[in-house]
Write a structure and sequence with these properties.
This protein is α/β, with parallel strands linked by helices. The protein contains 7 helices and 7 strands; from the N terminus they run βαββαβαβαβαααβ.
Length: 249
């Protein structure tokens, strides 16, 4: 096999759609063996093993990592992509919806790093998906933005702790990406112009563009990079965030 990741073993969470699926495709194209976790796993194929995994349940995360090690004898790479949100204004946010969101985008990353790092006995690389909203707040997004900000700091702390073991940990912070998760925003006639005006490059990102940044951070070109965040947002962070309250008017 040829490619940056020939013969390496990778785990991807949120692997069945969007950025996760694009990451799986990129890894397979570069020669990796991939085990993908998702609540709705997709089909097995050459080099790819799907596993049902809820990243908020430690036993399921542990099973996902164990599947990779038992099948391939090691773990070299991990990409923590799984995420979603239940959004509301702070004064209306239910405790249940807050817990759902923060558990998924923060605790899920913690549990994933914990078990992935344990399995990386010969060093490795972990890349977490945070969000532009780790830096930029948005209406109705307090739980999501807070959880993603936590995931960014967790990335730095993990890099600090795991570096002596030869494990690099970095984060990618996507802006608006054209995925099923963001369909309600990208299809909104009320907000469409605001989004395009805010993004310097004038369009949403593609999942493969985010995946490319993640593979860079996991690859040999980034061998001296750890504990950092790469914002991949088409220049959105430098302009500001659309006012999502327009959706309710």
């Amino acid at each position: 096999m040829t490619g940056r990741f020939a013969g390496q073993v990778a785990v991807v969470t949120g692997a069945a759609s969007g950025i996760g699926a694009a990451t799986v495709r990129g890894l397979l194209a570069e020669g990796a063996l991939v085990v993908g976790g998702d609540l709705q796993p997709d089909e097995a194929r050459d080099g790819y093993t799907p596993v049902r995994c809820d990243v908020t349940v430690e036993a399921e995360v542990e099973k996902l990592v164990r599947t990779a090690v038992e099948a391939h004898g090691r773990l070299d790479l991990a990409f923590n992509v799984a995420g979603a949100a239940r959004s509301a204004p702070i004064v209306d946010q239910t405790e249940e919806d807050w817990d759902f969101t923060v558990d998924l985008v923060l605790k899920g990353v913690f549990l994933s790093i914990k078990h992935q790092a344990r399995a990386m006995t010969e060093g490795g690389a972990i890349v977490n998906v945070s969000s532009l909203n780790a830096h930029v707040p948005m209406h109705f997004g307090s739980a999501y933005a807070s959880g993603k900000a936590g995931a960014e700091m967790l990335t730095k702390n993990a890099a600090l702790e795991l570096g002596p073991r030869g494990i690099r940990v970095n984060a990618v912070l996507p802006g608006l990406v054209d995925t099923p998760l963001t369909a309600g925003l990208t299809a909104s006639e009320v907000l469409a112009d605001d989004f395009l005006d805010a993004i310097v490059l004038g369009r949403p990102g593609r999942p493969d563009e985010i995946a490319a940044a993640m593979l860079f951070l996991a690859g040999p070109e980034a061998s001296y990079i750890t504990g950092t965040s790469l914002v991949v947002d088409g220049g959105w962070e430098i302009t500001g965030y659309p006012d999502l309250r327009k959706l309710r008017r």
